[in-house]
UniProtKB/TrEMBL annotation, chain A:
Domain EMC1 first beta-propeller, chain residue ranges per copy: 18-431
Protein name: ER membrane protein complex subunit 1
This protein's UniProt keywords: Endoplasmic reticulum, Glycoprotein, Membrane, Signal, Transmembrane, Transmembrane helix
Assembly: Component of the ER membrane protein complex (EMC).
GO terms (BP aspect): protein folding in endoplasmic reticulum
Organism: Friedmanniomyces endolithicus
Signal peptide: 1-18
Gene Ontology cellular component terms for the protein in this record: EMC complex
Compartments where located: Endoplasmic reticulum membrane
From TrEMBL, chain B:
Signal peptide: 1-20
Protein name: DOMON domain-containing protein
Keyword set, alphabetical order: Signal
Domain of life, source organism: Eukaryota
One Pfam family matching this protein: ECM10
Length: 930, 191
C-alpha cells in the first residue's frame, strides 16, 4: 500500500530541496589565484613527512604564498604577504627536507608557515631588507631531530647573517658583516655557511667576496676574494649561487656569454668552460639548475637560451679535488625550454619541457629515462601563437631504468600554470588573471551580426529590406544540416532541461558576454562570462620589456570589438570572439575635426588640478586650495540609462531627480587637518553643485567614491570626535530638482537648456550616513540595459575578503529619522533609519568563498533588463550576475518544463476520463426524485 | 566679582570684533574670454566668513566672436581656479550673481556664477551695476543620527519610570461628565 506513495513523496520532496539549492554555485565563478609562480620559489614538498602525498608550494610574483594540490589544482591554503612596499621585490621560499614547515622571506620578514594548513608558526623581522634565506641542513649529527634552522642574510646599513631557530624563531647567533660590500646571497654546505658579498673594484667591475662562517657558533672561519678578473661587469652576470648541496657552487659568465666560470664555494680554484655557439643567434640567457639536497650527487645542469633555440650541458663535480667536469650535453631544440631538477635519494634527474616534448634524464648519463610527446598544453593562446614553457618544477619517481610517474608543473608563456602528469595536461590555473589591470565586457560578434542585419532591414526601403531578408534566409539555409543534427538534442533539452540552461549555445539573455582582461605582462585574455572556466583566447598585444608596466584602458566601442589603448597610443581593435586584430578598423583621426566631438568639453586631471577644455581651448579649472590634494574623481557613467525621471511617492506624487549626464564627484584630502572634502561638479561649466567636508578622517584608509543616476556615495574611516563617531561610514547623497513633490524647480520642464547660458539652480541634496562594521575599499554599482531595475551598490570588503551587493533602498537617504515610516513611506519601501548598517549575509555575493585582493569591480548590462553582470578582479577573479529587482523577466532554474507539461497532460487525461463519469452522474441527478 | 565679569565679557566682545575685522579678505575676480590672452578684472570683492560686498564692478569687454567667458581668480599660490559661462550672461539687463565658495576655514576655494533675466531681489544691498555676490559655505558632512543613549543616575542605576496615573486620575472627566449628565437628567425628570 505504501509503495505507490513513495514516488509521490519524492516528487513532493524535490521542489522542497530546490528552495535550498539556489543559484549560488551556478551563476557565479571564482578563481582563487596566486599570481605567476616564480621559478626559484616553487617546489613540490611533502607537508607531512610520514606520508607520501606532496603539495606544490609557491611564492608568486603577487607576493601570495600558497599550496596547491597537484591532483586537481585546487588551492589548499594561501597567505598574502606584504612586501613592505620596497622596490626590491625579492622573495624567498624554502622547505627543509622532511620538514612540516615552509619558510618564507620577503621584505624584512622571515616567517615559518605550517606546510599542511598555512598557519603562521613564527616570524622574525630583520633590520635591513632580506637578501637571502636558506635552511641549514647540517649533517654532523649534532642537530636536533626537530625543526631545521634557517639562516637569513639581510642588507641595509648593517648587513648581517642570522641563524634563526627553526622551532621558535629565536635568533641563535648573528654575524655582522663589515665593510661596504653589498650582501648578495647565502650558501650552505654541510659544514659551513657562506655569505657571498659583492665587492666593487675601482675599475667598476665586481668581485665576489666569500665569508665562511661556522654554522654552530656563527664565528668567521675564513674569508677570501674570488679572482674573477675583469669579466664580471655587474652582478647580473652571476648565474647562480647554489645552496644546500654537497658542494655549493658559484657560476658566472662574461657579458657576451662566451665563457662559463664555475667555482666550488670554499675553494679558490675557478674552472673555465667556453660556451659553444650553436647557431647564429647570440645567447640571451644562461641558467643553472642544481639539486637542493645535501645528500644528492654533486651534478648540475647549465641551460643556454637564444632567441630561437635552447640546449643544456650537464657537469659533474668531483668532491675530492673540487674539480668540475663536463659530463654530457643535451641537444639543441628549437623554441624555448624549461628544465627542472628533482632528486630521489642521492640520484638527480633533470626533466626537460619543450614546446612538444617532455623528457627525463638522469644526471649520471644522457640516456632518456622517459619521454612523452605533448600534443598541447590544453590552454588557449593567440592566433598562430606557439605556446612555450617558461619554467617548470617536477616530481619524478623512477623504478629501475624508467620513470614510473612524473608530475611537472609548467608556467607557460600564456601565463597559465599547467600540471603535466606523464605528458598529459591534468589541470591549468589561469594565473595570468591575477595581474589583471583593466577589464571590459563585449558582446560576441555573432550575436551582433543578426542585430545589425535586422537594423539594416528596419531602416532600409521595403523592397531592399525584403531582398536583404531573403538573402539572409538563403545564407541561413546553409546552417540547416547542422541545425537538423542538433534538433533532437534541442527538443529533448527543451522538454527536460530548465529554462536557464544555455548549453544549447544560443545566448538570448546576454549572459555569455566576453570579458577581456588586460594583464600586467601585456597580454589580453578573453573569458566567456557564461563558461568562465574556459579561456577563449589569450594573446600578446604589447611588446613590453621586462620590468616595464603598462596602464591600458579597455573598452568595447561597438559590439564584437574590444579596443585596447595605452596611455600614449591610439587604440587597437580586436575581435572579441577570436582575438583577431582588426587592422582595417584602426580608428583614423579625421582631418576636419568632427563637430560633435570638437564642441565637447573634455577635462583631465593635470597635476593636482582639474582642467577642462572647450573647443580645444582651456575652459574651467578646479584647483584645490593649498595643502589639499585630489584623491579621485568619478564622473557619472557615460552609458547610464535611467528609466524614470522621478521617484514616485506613496501618495502617487513625484519627486523629480536631478539628472544631468555631466556631473562628477570629486574627493580631496587635506592632510594637515585630516579633512576630506567632497564636491559634486558640473563638468561643463565647472560649477560646484554640492560640497561638504568631513573632519577627523583617517586618510590612510581607502576612500572609495561612486556616482550614478542622480546619487553619489562614498565611504571613509573617521576618528572619534565630538561631532561624530569613530568607525567606517558610508555616505549617500541624492540630488533632486526640488524637494517639493510634483515640482520641477526653477528650470521647470524645459527640455532644452545649457548650463553655460542659464545655470540651473543648484540641486537639492539629501544626504545620509550609515555606520558600517568594516571598511570598504571599492564601490561599484550594477547596470542594466534600460535602468528600470533598481540598483545595487557593490562594495568590496577587504577585511573579510568579500563582495557585497547593498540594495539601494536600504541606504536611501530619504529613510525617516527618529520616527517610524508613515503609510505612504512604507508603500515606497522606506523604513525607519538605523545608524548602523548591518551587512545582511544574503548580500554577500561571494557566499562562503574568500575573494582576496579585489582592486576593481566592473559591471555590464545583460540583454534582459533584470540582470547585471559583475566581474571583480585584483588578485582573485570573481564574477556573477545579479538581479537587484529579482528575475522578473526570466524563469528560474527550478522551473521544470517537463513537470509542467506532465501536469497539463495529466489534467487533460483526467478530464477526458472523468467527463463521462460526471455526465452520468449529472444525468442520474436529473432523474432523481425532486 | 561683577566688574570682573563685565570686563571679561567686554574683552571677549572686543576680541571677537577684532577677529571679525581681521578675517576681511579682498579678492579680484577676473573675467577671461576664451580668446583673450589674459583675464581682466571683473569685480573687486571683500568678504569675511559671513558677508561679502562688491567694491567695484567693471563690465567685461568680450570680443563678439567669443561665446564663452571664464570667471575665476588666482589662488595665493598663483594657480588659477575658474568656471566657464556664456558671454551673453554679461548683458547689462541681466541680473548677475557671483557665488563665492568658502571652505570650513572661511577661505575662498571656488567661484560660481548665475545670471537671470528676471530681477532677483536677494542681496540687493550688495548689488553694484547688476552684480551681486553670495557666499556659499561648505556644509559639514552628514553624520550618523545615533540613537539616544540611556541616561543613568549617579549611582549607575537606570532611573525609575514616573509612576503611572491611576484610573481615576486618567479618566476622571468621563466620570464627572457622566455624573453631570445624570444630575441634569434627574433634575429634568423632577420638573
Amino acid at each position: 500500500m505504501l509503495l505507490p506513495l513513495l514516488p509521490a513523496a519524492t516528487l513532493l520532496l524535490a521542489p522542497a530541496c530546490a528552495v535550498f539549492s539556489d543559484e549560488a554555485w551556478n551563476v557565479d565563478y571564482h578563481f582563487a589565484l596566486l599570481g605567476a609562480p616564480k621559478e626559484e620559489t616553487s617546489f613540490f614538498h611533502r607537508p607531512n613527512p610520514s606520508s607520501k602525498a606532496s603539495l606544490i608550494y609557491t611564492l608568486s610574483e603577487e607576493h601570495a604564498l600558497g599550496a596547491v594540490n597537484p591532483r586537481d589544482g585546487s588551492l589548499v591554503w594561501r597567505q598574502l604577504l606584504a612586501s613592505g612596499g620596497d622596490s626590491h621585490n625579492t622573495s624567498f621560499l624554502r622547505a627543509g627536507e622532511g620538514q612540516d614547515v615552509v619558510i618564507s622571506g620577503i621584505g624584512s620578514e622571515v616567517a615559518a608557515w605550517s606546510a599542511a594548513d598555512g598557519r603562521l608558526v613564527w616570524n622574525v623581522h630583520t633590520d635591513g631588507p632580506l637578501e637571502d634565506v636558506e635552511i641549514l641542513e647540517l649533517s654532523d649529527g649534532k642537530e636536533t631531530v626537530g625543526a631545521k634552522d634557517a639562516v637569513a642574510l639581510s642588507g641595509g646599513e648593517h648587513p648581517m647573517v642570522q641563524r634563526i631557530d627553526g622551532a621558535s624563531g629565536a635568533v641563535k647567533w648573528q654575524y655582522s658583516i663589515d665593510g661596504s660590500d653589498a650582501p648578495y646571497q647565502l650558501s650552505a654546505s654541510s659544514t659551513e655557511v657562506f655569505a657571498i658579498l659583492i665587492h666593487k673594484t675601482i675599475l667598476g667591475y665586481v668581485k665576489l667576496r666569500v665569508v665562511a662562517l661556522d654554522p654552530v657558533t656563527g664565528l668567521k672561519t675564513d674569508e677570501y676574494m674570488l679572482s674573477s678578473e675583469n669579466e664580471l661587469a655587474t652582478a647580473d652576470n652571476i648565474i647562480s649561487v647554489g645552496a644546500n648541496s654537497a658542494s655549493p657552487i658559484i657560476a658566472w659568465t662574461d657579458a657576451a656569454h662566451t665563457t662559463l666560470k664555475v667555482n666550488v664555494v670554499g675553494t679558490k680554484s675557478i674552472s673555465s668552460f667556453s660556451i659553444e655557439k650553436h647557431d647564429e643567434n647570440a645567447i640571451e640567457r644562461v641558467k643553472l639548475h642544481a639539486p637542493y639536497h645535501i645528500n644528492s650527487l654533486a651534478h648540475f645542469l647549465v641551460h643556454y637560451e637564444t632567441a630561437t633555440s635552447h640546449w643544456a650541458e650537464v657537469y659533474h663535480i668531483d668532491l675530492k679535488n673540487s674539480k668540475v667536469e663536463k659530463a654530457y650535453s643535451l641537444p639543441r631544440v628549437a623554441g624555448r625550454g624549461a628544465f627542472s631538477t628533482s632528486t630521489a635519494d642521492a640520484n638527480v634527474y633533470f626533466t626537460r619541457v619543450t614546446r612538444d616534448e617532455l623528457s627525463t634524464v638522469s644526471s649520471a648519463s644522457h640516456g632518456l629515462l622517459g619521454r612523452w610527446s605533448l600534443s598541447s598544453f590544453g590552454v588557449a593562446g593567440g592566433v598562430g601563437e606557439v605556446i612555450e614553457p617558461v619554467h617548470a618544477v617536477s616530481e619524478v619517481s623512477v623504478k629501475g631504468d624508467t620513470v614510473s610517474a612524473i608530475r611537472t608543473t609548467v608556467l607557460l608563456s600564456t601565463g597559465d600554470w599547467v600540471l603535466l602528469r606523464d605528458g598529459k595536461a591534468i589541470w591549468t590555473r589561469p594565473e595570468m588573471l591575477a595581474s589583471t589591470v583593466a577589464v571590459t565586457f563585449a558582446m560576441p560578434a555573432d550575436m551582433v551580426t543578426l542585430a545589425q542585419q535586422l537594423e539594416v532591414e528596419a531602416h532600409g526601403n521595403p523592397v531592399a529590406a525584403y531582398i536583404h531578408r531573403v538573402q539572409r534566409h538563403i545564407t541561413d539555409l546553409q546552417k540547416l544540416p547542422s541545425f537538423l543534427v542538433l534538433m533532437p538534442k534541442k527538443i529533448v533539452q527543451g522538454f527536460l532541461g530548465t529554462s536557464a540552461d544555455d548549453a544549447a549555445g544560443s545566448d538570448i539573455f546576454g549572459f555569455r558576454q566576453i570579458i577581456a582582461c588586460a594583464t600586467r605582462s601585456g597580454r589580453l585574455v578573453a573569458l566567456d562570462a557564461g563558461h568562465p572556466d574556459r579561456t577563449l583566447w589569450n594573446r600578446d598585444v604589447t611588446d613590453l620589456k621586462p620590468g616595464q608596466s603598462w596602464r591600458p584602458s579597455l573598452s568595447s566601442t561597438k559590439d564584437g570589438v574590444i579596443q585596447v589603448s595605452s596611455v600614449a597610443g591610439t587604440g587597437v581593435d580586436y575581435n572579441a570572439t577570436d582575438g583577431q586584430q582588426l587592422a582595417g578598423d584602426l580608428p583614423v583621426i579625421p582631418d576636419e575635426p568632427d563637430l560633435s566631438t570638437s564642441r565637447a568639453v573634455r577635462y583631465t586631471m593635470r597635476g593636482n588640478s582639474l582642467e577642462a577644455t572647450y573647443d580645444w581651448s582651456p575652459s574651467w579649472t578646479f584647483t584645490p586650495t593649498h595643502g589639499e590634494r585630489i584623491l579621485n574623481l568619478v564622473p557619472r557613467p557615460v552609458d547610464d540609462p535611467v528609466a524614470s525621471i522621478g521617484k514616485v511617492l506613496g501618495d502617487r506624487r513625484v519627486l523629480y531627480k536631478y539628472l544631468d549626464s555631466n556631473i562628477a564627484l570629486l574627493a580631496t584630502a587635506h592632510d594637515a587637518s585630516s579633512k576630506a572634502n567632497f564636491y559634486v561638479l558640473n563638468t561643463i561649466s565647472g560649477a560646484i553643485l554640492y560640497s561638504n567636508t568631513h573632519p577627523n578622517i583617517d586618510l590612510t584608509a581607502p576612500i572609495p567614491t561612486i556616482m550614478s543616476e542622480n546619487w553619489f556615495a562614498y565611504s571613509f574611516t573617521s576618528e572619534a570626535s565630538p561631532d561624530t563617531t569613530k568607525g567606517h561610514h558610508l555616505v549617500i547623497g541624492e540630488l533632486f530638482e526640488s524637494l517639493l513633490p510634483d515640482h520641477r524647480g526653477a528650470m521647470g520642464a524645459s527640455s532644452n537648456y545649457s548650463v553655460l547660458h542659464t545655470p540651473a539652480s543648484d540641486p537639492f541634496t539629501l544626504t545620509q550616513t550609515y555606520q558600517l562594521p568594516e571598511p570598504i575599499s571599492r564601490l561599484a554599482v550594477t547596470r542594466t540595459r534600460q535602468g528600470i531595475t533598481s540598483r545595487q551598490l557593490l562594495a568590496v570588503l577587504p577585511a573579510s575578503n568579500a563582495l557585497v551587493g547593498i540594495p539601494y533602498g536600504v541606504v536611501d537617504p530619504r529613510r525617516p529619522v527618529g520616527r517610524d515610516a508613515t503609510k505612504d513611506e512604507q508603500a515606497e519601501g522606506l523604513m525607519r533609519y538605523a545608524p548602523v548598517l548591518e551587512l545582511d549575509p544574503k548580500w554577500y555575493l561571494n557566499h562562503q568563498r574568500e575573494v582576496v585582493g579585489i582592486k576593481e569591480v566592473v559591471t555590464a548590462p545583460a540583454l534582459i533588463e533584470s540582470t547585471s553582470l559583475v566581474f571583480a578582479y585584483g588578485l582573485d577573479v570573481f564574477g556573477t550576475r545579479l538581479s537587484p529587482s529579482f528575475s522578473f523577466d526570466v524563469l528560474g532554474r527550478d522551473f521544470n518544463k517537463f513537470q509542467m507539461l506532465a501536469t497539463v497532460a495529466a489534467l487533460a487525461v483526467a478530464t477526458f476520463v472523468v467527463t463521462p463519469l460526471v455526465m452520468r452522474k449529472q444525468v442520474d441527478q436529473r432523474w432523481r426524485f425532486l | 566679582m561683577k566688574a570682573y565679569t563685565v570686563i571679561s565679557i567686554l574683552l571677549t566682545f572686543l576680541c571677537s570684533l577684532s577677529a571679525a575685522l581681521e578675517t576681511e579678505h579682498t579678492v579680484d575676480i577676473l573675467a577671461w574670454p576664451l580668446s583673450a590672452p589674459k583675464g581682466a578684472t571683473l569685480a573687486k570683492i571683500t568678504y569675511n566668513s559671513t558677508a561679502a560686498t562688491v567694491k567695484s564692478y567693471t563690465q567685461p569687454k568680450i570680443p563678439s566672436d567669443d561665446d564663452i567667458v571664464r570667471i575665476g581668480y588666482y589662488h595665493p599660490s598663483g594657480s588659477w581656479s575658474g568656471i566657464a559661462t556664456a558671454a551673453s550672461n554679461f548683458a547689462p539687463e541681466k541680473s548677475k550673481i557671483l557665488l563665492l565658495h568658502l571652505n570650513s576655514d572661511g577661505e575662498l576655494y571656488h567661484v560660481g556664477f548665475r545670471a537671470s533675466d528676471y530681477g532677483s531681489s536677494s542681496a540687493a544691498s550688495h548689488t553694484k551695476d547688476g552684480l551681486s555676490v553670495e557666499l556659499v559655505k561648505v556644509r559639514p558632512g552628514p553624520t550618523p543620527h545615533l540613537n539616544k543613549p540611556v541616561v543613568v543616575n549617579a549611582d549607575g542605576t537606570v532611573p525609575s519610570k514616573e509612576p503611572e496615573k491611576t484610573f481615576l486620575q486618567k479618566y476622571w472627566y468621563f466620570i464627572a461628565g457622566f455624573l453631570v449628565l445624570q444630575v441634569v437628567m434627574s433634575s429634568g425628570k423632577g420638573e
